[in-house]
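Journal club side-thread
Mid-discussion, someone asked how the predicted structure for our own chain would compare to the paper's figures. Pasting it here so we can look after the session.
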Amino acid sequence: MNQFATKIALSALLSTFAAAQGQTLTFGVNPGQTTTGSGTIGVTVGGHGTVTVNVPGGTSSAGVTTALANALTGQGYTVQQNGTEITVTSGPGGAPLQNGGGIGSTDPGVNGVRATVHKAPPQGPGPNPNPPGNKVNGGKVPKARGGGQAQGPGSIQVDVEVQKLVNGQWTLMWIQVVVPIQPGDDANAINQRVRQQLENQGFKVNDVTLPPVVQPITPVPCIGLDRTFNGESVQSIQFDFFGSAQNFFPESWAGAGQFPISGVTDWDIGLRPDGSESPYFIEYNGSHQPGGNGFFAAFVQPGTVGAFQIGFGSSLDPWNPLAIPLPLVGPDFYSVLDPFSSLSQLAFPDPLGLMQMPLVIPPDPQLQGLELQLQGLTIDPAQPNVPGSVERTQGLLVAIGQ
């Protein structure tokens, strides 16, 4: 059985387990690696903390996994090990796993890791019988940083698992993106190429900031993949680098189901009976720091009348977003913002369906950590009273500062 067939089989097994037990997290150290003994390997389980190990040089991927499993068990986590993978099913004392997590290493011998968050998938063919719920919230990998210029060839490999509705059946599929590094490349060139190739494969790419697993003090710029442009949710990510990439990735890590400390991410709930999400996208371009400015852009149906709906706060739970049914709008319409505690601004899409709204963030340090929660709404003026004539974008969150 090849690597991808093995991944799919394990994913199917673990998804079945997750359906019965709730959310679980799986961390993996890619096979065939050997530590140098000069770094730390660790995992973070959202809401419960970070567990790290230092293993001697010459330790295999399986040995690293065993050391991590023993360390997690010693701190009260419930874990299951399968070769080079660890599945965490509960926190200390049996506490449920509400958030995502990540795995990382500063050991130069470990340059490939993977992270997966498992939740109960939609059941059976056709319409989704489950009530609307939050999505998996994607995965994250680090951006290239430092390293000067590449002196030789190399590559970065990102394997992304997405949940697709294929012929009426929910199916987990892997998409592999290999990004070459060429002599003379710097970190900026590498990041632009990674972003471009991920977008070419249909992924919606976000810029986010997260603490690395083994050094939680220093925030690290990351590439976040929440979904494809078709609205299909990202379940997990595997990250590898080879050759001259070592100069640009002093840490190897991957995260699943995490939420950015700062930056921009889209988030959503199921919108239709088949579990699919909104076909319309909203994004933010610009600075999200105090004193910065930018603009919101929503891609919607041309010929409609639109509005941006904005909520403010610092306590949004991205793993349990609002799902407010509005049956007067449409039988399957749910809002991701409370219409009674948010502001709206009228907007008109251009002939291509783009509508925009500027944002100027005052230079006030007290805004640090404030969350702007947005969605775009449209209505077809030709049939304003017909249920289903109102559509909305996916939700967007901009966290100001760090």
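Post-session note: The chain has a mean pLDDT of 81.
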